[in-house]
Amino acid sequence: MLMKKVEKRLIVIAGPTAVGKTSYAIKLAQEYNTEIISTDSRQFYRELQIGTAAPTEEELNAAPHHFIGNLSIHNYYNVSIYEKEAIKKIEELFKTHDTVIAVGGSGLYIDALCYGIDNLPDAEPKLRQEIKDKFATYGIEYLQDEVRRLDPDYFAKADINNHKRLQRALEVCIQTGKTYSSQRTEKKIKRNFKIEKIVMNMPREILYDRINKRVDIMVEEGLIEEVKGLIPNKDLNALNTVGYKELFQYFDNNISLEQAITDIKTHSRRYAKRQLTWFKRYDDFTWIENNK
Prior knowledge:
The protein is an alpha/beta fold. The protein has twelve helices and six strands. The protein has helices spanning 21-32, 57-62, 79-93, 107-115, 125-138, 140-150, 152-157, 163-176, 204-220, 223-228, 245-251, 257-279, and strands at residues 9-14, 36-38, 65-66, 99-103, 194-201, 285-289. Helix 2 (57-62) links the parallel strand 2 (36-38) and strand 3. The N and C termini lie far apart (47 Å).
């Protein structure tokens, strides 16, 4: 009698920051005796521990994790590279596990894992640096104006306050001589394994309270010292993120420490709102409430 082939399964746990994704992922990983793939793009960087709420040593020991602290802030990395590396790791894990867990809140990286991403060319290093230098000099308005001029279709539907996506669109437009929008097929790839997608959520007032308390805990655990040690690298893209950029403003004597901490809480709550908006676009996610 032939044995029925077991279908491999990836369980994706998404949701806003501070909702409890890590602990739930570890619980599932222990239940299925499997390993965890991170889809949190901020936790890839080993220098960013406290401000990204990276899993603790105890949590890492509770279940094997991948793509946590695997990069330096000095490494060039993007979602296309991540897709290739993460799928390779998942296929490797499927040789010894029937189920693998993926967890994180970076919507673009979750999309790449589940649906694939357009294979667009990487920018030449010189071009990328030129665009970064102009962004540093002229601000996001430079990116907005250039993308509007070169690709008005993309500009009309893009998140025009996301400098990384504008920069990427501009790189592709300039390097290829074609619009970014014309090269984005946005066709979903059919993976050769089953994907179950879960979004964790909780009542807004509870989530926001958890976010505020988490920031206070980060400060107690040494966030200010962590950011101070990164001042020489503050212009790197990886550090233009919530929890770091606000404290750089404090160290530059532009705002008080109290204001910087308040801003981290405010920006973290806004980030959580954007995350939920991203996941609401899809009808193939199962939403669950974490009321703890």
